[in-house]
C-alpha cells in the first residue's frame, strides 16, 4: 500500500524531504548529493524569494511507513502570465522502481494543477533556471555535478509508461583542457578587442566584484537567457539573494568578465572547482566534518572544473566574445592543474553554444530531458 502525504514547508520536514534522495543513492558512485542546507533553503518559503511569484507543494510517498519517493509541484505564476501558459512544474522528483510510487506522486501534482485550472504539467524543473532541471536519460555511468540532477535509468521508463513525452533535451560535454590557448581563440579574441573595444576586467577582491558588477551580472543573465526554454527572469529580490549567497564562494581567478570601453559588462564566464567528490565524501552535510571535505574541494588538488555559466549580451552574441572569455579562462585552468572541463547542461537546440567546443577535444557524455503531459479533466 502506497501512501502519499503532503509535507509542511518547514526546515525540519524539508530536511527529511532532501535526505530521502541522499539515502536512495547512498551506494551509487556517480550520484553527487546536494548540500542539504542549500536544498532546504531553496524549498523554504522564508528563505527563497522565488516564493514571491511561485506557489509550491511538496509530497512524500511511503510504503509500510518507509519513505520511497518525493516530488515538488511548482506553479510559476510570472512565467505563466508572461507566456499566456497554464503550466504546473514538477521537480525534486525521486522514486523507487515501483510504478505505483511514481504514478501516485505525479498524480498529486496533476490533481493540484487541475484544482488551479492548469492545462499542462512539465518537468523536472525548479523555480528558475538556476535550480535543478532535466531528468538524466544518458550518462548514468558518468559522475554528476553539484548543479545537475542524477537519477537511475528506470526513471525515464516510468515517465513514458505514465504517458509523459519529451518537451526538450539538454546535452553536456566533457572537454579536455588544452596545453595552451587554441590559435583560433587567440585570433578571434584580438579581432574582437579591436573591433568592439572590449577588454577583460580582473578582480582580486570579492567585495569589489560584488559592488561593481554584482547586480549587472545577474541582469546580464536575464538578458542573455530571456528567450531560452522555460526561462524565468530573476527579480530584484532574487538578484540580491544570489549576490549574497553565491558571489562570495567564487575563486575570482576562475571568473572572466568582459567589459566595453565604458566598463559596462557585456559577457561573463563563471567556473569553479568540481565539488562532486567533496560532496560525496561529506554526504551533503557541513557538520560534523563535512566542511573539511568541502574546503578541500574548493582549495585542494582537483583535476576537474565546472563551467557553471556563460552569458553574453544579446547584441554581442555570435561576435566572438566567447573566444575572449576562454582566452582568459584557459590559462587559469592550466595554472590550477585542471585536466577536464564539465560544461553543465545546454539546450540541444543551442548550436551556437555547442559550436564553440569544436576547438577543444570533447565528448558529449550526458543528456537530460524535460517531460510534459496534458492534464486530463
Quickly describe the structure:
The protein has 377 residues and is α+β, with helices and mostly antiparallel strands. Helices cover 36% and strands 27% of the residues.
What shape does the CA trace take?
globular
Q: How would a textbook summarize the main sheet?
A: 14 strands, mixed
Low-confidence stretches: none
Helix-strand pattern: EHHEEHEHEEHEHEHHEEHHEHEEHE
Strand percentage: 25-35%
Count the DSSP helices: 12
Quantity of strands, as a count = 14
Tell me the span between the first and last alpha carbons.
26 Å
Into which percent range does the helicity of residues fall?
25-40%
Your description of this structure?
The protein has 377 residues and is an alpha+beta fold. Helix content is 36%, strand content 27%. The chain contains twelve helices and 14 strands. Strands 1, 2, 3, 4, 5, 6, 7, 8, 9, 10, 11, 12, 13 and 14 form a 14-stranded mixed beta sheet that branches. β2 and β3 (66-76) form a beta hairpin. The longest helix is centred in the middle third of the chain and has 20 residues, at 206-225. The two termini are 26 Å apart.
Features:
single chain, 377 residues, alpha+beta, 14-stranded mixed beta sheet, 12 helices, globular
Write the layout of secondary structure elements.
Blueprint: E1 2-7, H1 11-24, H2 36-43, E2 54-63, E3 66-76, H3 77-83, E4 87-95, H4 99-115, E5 120-123, E6 135-138, H5 154-161, E7 165-176, H6 183-196, E8 199-201, H7 206-225, H8 236-246, E9 255-259, E10 265-273, H9 276-282, H10 290-299, E11 304-312, H11 321-336, E12 340-342, E13 346-347, H12 351-355, E14 362-374
Parallel strand pairs: 4-5, 11-12
Antiparallel strand pairs: 1-2, 2-3, 3-4, 5-14, 6-14, 7-12, 7-13, 7-14, 8-9, 9-10, 10-11
Helix pairs in contact: 1-2, 6-11, 7-8, 9-10
Amino acid at each position: 500500500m502506497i501512501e502519499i502525504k503532503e509535507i509542511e514547508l518547514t526546515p525540519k520536514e524539508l530536511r527529511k524531504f532532501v535526505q530521502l534522495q541522499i539515502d536512495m543513492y547512498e551506494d551509487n558512485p556517480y550520484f553527487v548529493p546536494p548540500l542539504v542546507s542549500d536544498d532546504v533553503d531553496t524549498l523554504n518559503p522564508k528563505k527563497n524569494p522565488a516564493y514571491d511569484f511561485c506557489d509550491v507543494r511538496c509530497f512524500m510517498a511511503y510504503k509500510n511507513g518507509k519513505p520511497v519517493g518525493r516530488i515538488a509541484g511548482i506553479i510559476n505564476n510570472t512565467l505563466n502570465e508572461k507566456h499566456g501558459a497554464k503550466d504546473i512544474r514538477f521537480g525534486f522528483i525521486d522514486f523507487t522502481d515501483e510504478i505505483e510510487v511514481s504514478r501516485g506522486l505525479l498524480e498529486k501534482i496533476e490533481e493540484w494543477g487541475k484544482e488551479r485550472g492548469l492545462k499542462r504539467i512539465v518537468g523536472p524543473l525548479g523555480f528558475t533556471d538556476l535550480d535543478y532541471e532535466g531528468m538524466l536519460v544518458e550518462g548514468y555511468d558518468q559522475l554528476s555535478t553539484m548543479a545537475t540532477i542524477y537519477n537511475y535509468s528506470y526513471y525515464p521508463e516510468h515517465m513514458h509508461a505514465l504517458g509523459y513525452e519529451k518537451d526538450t533535451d539538454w546535452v553536456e560535454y566533457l572537454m579536455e583542457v588544452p596545453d595552451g590557448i587554441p590559435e583560433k581563440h587567440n585570433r578571434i579574441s584580438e579581432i574582437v578587442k579591436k573591433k568592439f573595444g572590449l577588454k577583460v576586467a580582473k578582480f582580486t577582491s570579492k567585495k569589489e566584484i560584488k559592488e561593481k558588477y554584482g547586480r549587472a551580472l545577474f541582469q546580464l543573465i536575464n538578458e542573455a537567457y530571456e528567450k531560452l526554454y522555460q526561462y524565468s527572469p530573476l527579480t530584484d529580490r532574487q538578484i540580491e539573494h544570489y549576490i549574497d549567497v553565491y558571489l562570495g564562494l567564487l575563486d575570482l581567478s576562475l571568473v572572466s568578465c568582459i567589459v566595453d570601453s565604458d566598463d559596462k559588462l557585456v559577457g561573463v564566464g563563471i567556473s569553479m572547482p568540481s565539488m562532486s567528490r567533496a560532496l560525496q565524501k561529506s554526504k551533503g552535510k557541513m557538520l560534523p566534518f563535512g566542511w573539511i571535505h568541502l574546503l578541500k574541494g574548493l582549495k585542494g588538488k582537483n583535476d576537474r572544473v565546472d563551467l557553471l555559466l556563460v552569458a553574453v549580451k544579446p547584441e554581442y552574441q555570435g561576435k566572438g566574445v566567447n573566444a575572449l572569455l576562454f582566452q582568459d579562462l584557459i590559462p587559469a585552468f592550466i595554472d590550477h592543474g585542471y585536466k577536464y572541463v564539465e560544461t553543465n547542461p545546454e539546450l540541444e537546440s543551442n548550436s551556437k553554444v555547442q559550436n564553440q567546443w569544436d576547438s577543444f577535444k570533447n565528448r558529449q557524455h550526458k543528456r537530460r530531458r524535460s517531460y510534459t503531459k496534458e492534464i486530463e479533466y
